[in-house]
Design goal:
Number of helices: 20
Helix content: 55-70%
Oligomer: single chain
Radius of gyration: 35 Å
Distance between the termini: 55 Å
Largest sheet: 6 strands, mixed
Length: 582
C-alpha cells in the first residue's frame, strides 16, 4: 500500500524531503531558546550583569529569527508537497479507472469511486501534510527537549520519560480501538453518496411519483448510520485530550515540587527550573501533537487502503503483446461462447453462443428482459471478455486487438443515452475529434437528427445541458446514433437505442443505414419486431441461449416464441405513432 501511494509523490519529492528538514531546524531553534533564557536569568538577571543579558538576548533574537525563517520555508514546501501529492493521486485514480473494464467497474460502486476521488483523497492530503510536518516536528522537539532536560537535570528528566512511556501505551490502545470504527465510517460514506446520487439522477421520477418524503427518510437513515459510527470513533478519540491534560498537569506539579526542593538544596538554579518547566511543556505538547498525528493517520489509513485498492486493481481487459491495430472487416464469429459476470461457470449469463456474421450484414436480436441480449453485444465490443469459447471480429480473436483501435472500429449506442455538457457539435465530435461540420451534418442525416437540430435557434452550436436534459428521449437517442456513426465503424451496435423514436423515424433510420452504409455490419437489439424484421437474420434469445435464428419469414414458420411476439404486436394494431413523424 505504501509503495503504491508514495509512488505518486513524483515531482514533489524535493519538497517532501526539504519540508521535514526545515521542520527539524525550526524545532532546534525553538529548543535552544529556553536554554538561552535560563542563561539570561542566572548569568544576567540574578548576577545583575547587563552585558550577559545583551549577549544572550542577541542570541535569542537570532535563534527566533532563524526559527521563523525555517518555519516559513517548511510551511511553503509542505503545502506544495501535500497539494501536489493529492493532485497526482486524484489523477492516477481517474486515469486508472478509465482503463477498467465493465467487470472492474462492477466491483466498485460509482458512489464508492467518487468517495475515493474526493473525501478519501482529501483525507490522504491532510495526513501527508501532517506526516511531513507534525510527524517529524513532534519527535524532533520531544527528543531535543528531553536531551536538554537531561543536560540540565537527569533527575527531573526521568519524570518526562516515565510520563512519555505511560502516555504512549494508553495512546496505542485508544488508536487501535478507534481504527476499526473509522474503517466502517468510510463504508457508510459510500452508502450516503449512493443515496444522494440515486436521488439526484432520478429526481424527475422521484417528483413524478411524489416520493420526496420517502427519499428524505432514506437519506435520514443513511445519515444517522454515518453519525452513529462517527460518534463511536470520536468517543474513543476524545479520550486523548483528558489523558494528555492529566499527564501535563501531573508533570508540572511533580517538577515544581522536586525542582523547588533542588533549588533550596542548591542543586538547581531558578533559571534552570524555568527552562525545565518550558521543556516540560514542549515535551508534553509534542506528545499531544503525536497523539493528534496518530489519530489523523488512523482516520486516513482507511482512505489510504481504499485508494490503494483501486490503484492496485488490475484491469480485467488489457492490450496484449504485439497487439493487432487494424480490424480487417466487420465479420463476427462466436465459437461456443459461455459468459459469466462473476467468472463462475455455474452462474452463466450466456450459454453456448455459436453463430457468425458476414461483413455488412444486419442482425436483429430479440428476447425477453434478462434473456442475455445486452450481455451478448457487450462481448462484441469487448466490454467483457468471454468466460470460455472464442469470439472473433475481422477474423481475429478480440483479445488479440489493441483496445483503442478495436473500439474505434466498433461503435455502440447503449440503452442509456449519455450526452455531455457542451454544444451539439462538440458531442458529435466525441465520435471523431477532427470531424468537419459537414461530417456532423451527414451523420445526423443518417440518424434523422438533422430535422430537429436545424430547427434549434443555435443549430449545431446549441448548448447541451447536463445529461442532455434539454432534449427529449428520442432526440437524445438520435444524437447518440449520429455520434456513433461519426467514427465510420466497421460494426455498429444499437442496443435498444431507437425505443424512444417513433416507428416512422425508426424506419427512415434503418433505410438510411441500408442505402448509405451497406458495408457496415449492424447489430440491432430491439423490443419491436418492426425494428428488426428487415434484418438479414434475427436472433431470438431465451434464458442466455440462442432460441432461434433466421430471417423474419423463416422465424414466423419455425419459432413459436417469435410468432407469439409478432402476433402480440401486430394484432394489437402496431405502434400508435406508426406513420407519424419525429
Amino acid at each position: 500500500m505504501l509503495k503504491t501511494l508514495t509512488a505518486q509523490i513524483k515531482e514533489y519529492k524535493k519538497d517532501s524531503l526539504l519540508s521535514p528538514l526545515y521542520v527539524v531546524l525550526e524545532a532546534v531553534m525553538e529548543m535552544i531558546i529556553p536554554y538561552i533564557m535560563s542563561a539570561i536569568i542566572d548569568q544576567g538577571v540574578t548576577a545583575a550583569n547587563m552585558s550577559a543579558i545583551y549577549k544572550y538576548g542577541a542570541l535569542m533574537i537570532v535563534a527566533a529569527a532563524c526559527g521563523l525563517l525555517f518555519g516559513l520555508l517548511g510551511a511553503k514546501t509542505s503545502a506544495r508537497a501535500s497539494a501536489g501529492f493529492a493532485k497526482n493521486i486524484r489523477y492516477a485514480l481517474y486515469d486508472h479507472v478509465q482503463d477498467f473494464s465493465f467487470k472492474n467497474i462492477d466491483k466498485y460502486s460509482t458512489p464508492g469511486l467518487i468517495t475515493r476521488l474526493t473525501t478519501d483523497v482529501s483525507n490522504l492530503q491532510s495526513a501527508f501534510l501532517v506526516v511531513i510536518r507534525m510527524m517529524v516536528r513532534a519527535p524532533a522537539s520531544l527528543i531535543i527537549a528531553m536531551a536538554m532536560t537531561f543536560l540540565i537535570s537527569a533527575r527531573l528528566a526521568l519524570i518526562y520519560l516515565a510520563a512519555a512511556v505511560v502516555l504512549g501505551i494508553i495512546m496505542y490502545f485508544l488508536i487501535t480501538a478507534a481504527n476499526k470504527h473509522f474503517q466502517i465510517v468510510f463504508d457508510q460514506y459510500d452508502s450516503l453518496n449512493s443515496s444522494v446520487q440515486e436521488n439526484l439522477t432520478g429526481i424527475r421520477v422521484v417528483k413524478s411519483f411524489a416520493r420526496e418524503d420517502y427519499e428524505k427518510d432514506k437519506f435520514r437513515r443513511a445519515n444517522q448510520k454515518l453519525y452513529t459510527v462517527f460518534v463511536k470513533a470520536e468517543r474513543v478519540v476524545s479520550w486523548t485530550s483528558p489523558v494528555m491534560n492529566a499527564t501535563v498537569y501531573t508533570c508540572i506539579l511533580l517538577i515544581s515540587w522536586f525542582g523547588a526542593h533542588m533549588i533550596v538544596s542548591n542543586t538547581l538554579t531558578t533559571g534552570e527550573l524555568m527552562s525545565v518547566l518550558t521543556y516540560c511543556m514542549n515535551i508534553l505538547m509534542s506528545l499531544m501533537m503525536l497523539s493528534m498525528v496518530m489519530v489523523m493517520i488512523t482516520m486516513s489509513a482507511a482512505s489510504a487502503r481504499r485508494i490503494a485498492e483501486v490503484l492496485n486493481e488490475k484491469p480485467d481487459i488489457a492490450d496484449p503483446d504485439s497487439a493487432v491495430t487494424e480490424v480487417a472487416d466487420g465479420s463476427i464469429a462466436f465459437h461456443h461462447v459461455d459468459f459469466s459476470y462473476s467468472g463462475r461457470p455455474d452462474h452463466l449469463a450466456l450459454r453456448d453462443i455459436d453463430f457468425s456474421v458476414k461483413p455488412g450484414e444486419t442482425i436483429g436480436i430479440l428476447g425477453a428482459t434478462g434473456s442475455g441480449k445486452t450481455s451478448l453485444v457487450n462481448l462484441i465490443n469487448r466490454m467483457y471478455d468471454v468466460t470460455s469459447g472464442t469470439l472473433e471480429v475481422g477474423g481475429q480473436d478480440v483479445r488479440n486487438y489493441d483496445l483503442e483501435a478495436f473500439r474505434d472500429a466498433v461503435s455502440v449506442v447503449l440503452q442509456k443515452n449519455e450526452l455531455f455538457s457542451g454544444t451539439v457539435e462538440e458531442n458529435l465530435r466525441w465520435g471523431k475529434s477532427d470531424a468537419s461540420l459537414e461530417d456532423c451534418r451527414r451523420a445526423c442525416r443518417l440518424a434523422c437528427a438533422d430535422e430537429f437540430i436545424e430547427k434549434l435557434p443555435d443549430g449545431y452550436q446549441t448548448k447541451v445541458e447536463r445529461g442532455g436534459a434539454n432534449f427529449s428521449g428520442g432526440q437524445k437517442q438520435r444524437l447518440c446514433i449520429a455520434r456513433a456513426l461519426m467514427k465510420n465503424p466497421k460494426i455498429l451496435i444499437l442496443d435498444d437505442s431507437t425505443s424512444a423514436v417513433d416507428t416512422a423515424t425508426d424506419a427512415r433510420i434503418r433505410k438510411a443505414f441500408k442505402e448509405e452504409v451497406p458495408q457496415m455490419t449492424k447489430i440491432i437489439i430491439a423490443q419491436r419486431i418492426a425494428s428488426v424484421q428487415d434484418a438479414d437474420r434475427i436472433i431470438v434469445m431465451q434464458n442466455g441461449s440462442i432460441g432461434a435464428i433466421g430471417s423474419h419469414d423463416r422465424l414466423l414458420q419455425t419459432s413459436a416464441v417469435y410468432r407469439d411476439i409478432y402476433e402480440a404486436q401486430t394484432l394489437a394494431g402496431g405502434d400508435f405513432d406508426e406513420g407519424g413523424d419525429a
